[in-house]
Every structure is written in structure tokens, then in C-alpha cells.
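Q: Hi! First time doing this. I have a protein sequence and I read that you can turn it into a structure. Is that right? Here it is:
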Amino acid sequence: MFRFIHTSDLHLGKRFGNFSGDLPSRLREARHMVIARLAQRAREQGATTILLAGDTFDTETPTPDVRRQALAEMGHHAPIRWVVLPGNHDSLQATQLWTTLIAEAPENVVLAVDARPIELAADAVLLPAPCTTRRPGRDLTEWMDGEGTPEGTIRVGLAHGAIRSFSEEGNASEIIAPDRARRAGLDYLALGDWHGALEVDSHTRYSGTPEPDRFKHDQPGGALLVRIAGPSSLPEVTPLETASFAWLRLDLHLLDSDDPVAALEALLPEPRHRRQTLARVVATGRSRLPKRTALAGAIESAAPDFAFLELDDASLATECEADDLDMIDRAGALREAANVLLAEARDESRSAADRDIARAALARLYSYAQAVAA
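A: Yes, that's right. Below is the predicted 3D structure, encoded as C-alpha cells:
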């Protein structure tokens, strides 16, 4: 039985500029350290080959330290063999990058820069489709259909890009033929680009990224162990955990009667896991003004426990009564402003967006008044 690890989209060197403090550097380091975790999973499973299905680097110009340290780490785990495919973020258009990688790569790192067969084992051949540019605009796997291999050989395809309209960048449609594995007689087609694990058919899969980098995919980072008994047999695919950080979207739907602080605490992971967790709490439904303010305060209080924690309450409608406004002020300029905002929030002649802005402004005014009172 031939076995290997299928992974993709390491995006080494990604800057994570949307975060502050030391978190960007922690996230970058986690992406480098996943190389060792992938090698560990390979040893545990008896696999000697790791296929990287594109976007090993985040850009076509990774810094020398990112490039050389990645190669050094891969080289350290010999005799495990790494097969690195150019993706859309690190395509062959970056000639200087791939010329340098060819010169620096250790013996156990194979750069799949040509659309030609690569022998993986005596009875297994890899057919790679390296990305020639960021957006090739054509199906780079088409050549696999006519590429013959000796009888009895396991055929594995390796490609990066969109299939069935799946694309991380949302601007590609059906670039890779959905039935390429059947057309080309592939026993397995290993794909990269989609950052979540996805089964297209019994012979075609996206591995997802081994270390998540966004809230888009509601699943942990991982890789796939693939075992193929022989030509024309169904591959056995087993997910493997590899991530050190968890990216969680937590949906919090509230009713007027709910205690938002208690509901939030029930959603959050246990304290010892929070340091390695980035979480976005998406609040929907309806809540009274004091409870909405309490929810925002609970998020602020819990945030230091997490790598990152934020509240998205754009879709949380705010209910407000006269006694809520009394807690802002009973008279004067603040009360007058609160009355105006409440009237605008309830004015059905206004657009939904304008009413939402008024509710949000009223919530901020309430928070400000409570902070001053405290």
C-alpha cells in the first residue's frame, strides 16, 4: 500500500497585518512550526512523502529568512520527501524565487516545477500541474489525460486552483475540471487553494491548510493521510490534526429575555485553550440596551485570555425603552441626543442601514454614560 500526506496552503511568511501586538509574529511562527508537525504525522503514519499542493509561500517574494528556514526545516526531516508545487501565490512567474529554491533545496525536497511525471515509488507516479501565473485562466491539469504510465502504476495528480466554483479569492469558476480524476485515470487528485478540507469526489480532495489563517472555514487546520492499495482502488483518506491555533466563529443568537453574558460564557472555550484561540463572536437577534452594553463589557473583559477576541454585533437589533434612556440622563443635552437617536432608530421611513446606525450610536452613548457614572 502506497501512503503519503496531502497538505497545501502553508502561506509561509504571511504578515497578518490586520492584527496588532505580538500576535502577527506568533501566527507567522506557527506556520513555520507546522512543517515539523507535518513531518511528525508522517512518521507516525509510516508515510515517507508529503505533497504540498501549492502556496507554500504567501508571496512570490518571500524574505530570505522565510525561504531558507523553511528549506532547512524540511531538510532536517529527511528521509521524508517533500514535493513542493507552485501555487497562485508563489507561481512560476516568480522566476527568481524558483531559481533560488532549485539552487538551495536539500536533496529530500522535490520542486514540481514542470508538468511531467515524478516517480514517487516503484509503483506510484505523481502528475503535477504547477501554476504558471497567479491566474492561468486555463485548466493546467488537462495534460494528465494523455500522459501514459506503465501498467499497474498508481497515478496521483497534484494541482492548485478552483474547482466547481470553489476559490479562496471568489473570482474563479470551474478552472479545474471537476471530473479530472476520472478523465485522467487518477487514483487520487490532491488539490490546494481552498483552505478548508473538502471532498470533491471519492478520488479528489482539497486538504485545507494545516494552520488556519482566517475565520472563513468552520473546521480545524489539518492534513490528509492518503493510502492507496493499488491502481483503480478507492483511496483511504484520514484527517490528521496539525494546527496550533484555533480560529472560531461563534454564533450568539439572543432574545430579549436572554442573559447575554451567560450565553457568551457558554460559547467560549475553556480558559486553558484561549491563549491559542482567535474568536469572532457574531451576535444576532434582539437585546435591550443594558444587556447589549453588558455583552460588550464581557467581551472586553475576556479578551486578554485570548490570542484574539472580537464582537461583531452589526446584526444585533437593540431594543430600548424610556427607563433605559433614564440611565443615560433624565434631562439635558445627553437625554435630548438619546431621544433623537431612539426616534431615528424607530423611524420606519428611514432605511434599515440608517436605523442600524442610530441604534449603534445609541448603544455607544449608553456605554459612555455608564462609564462616566462608574
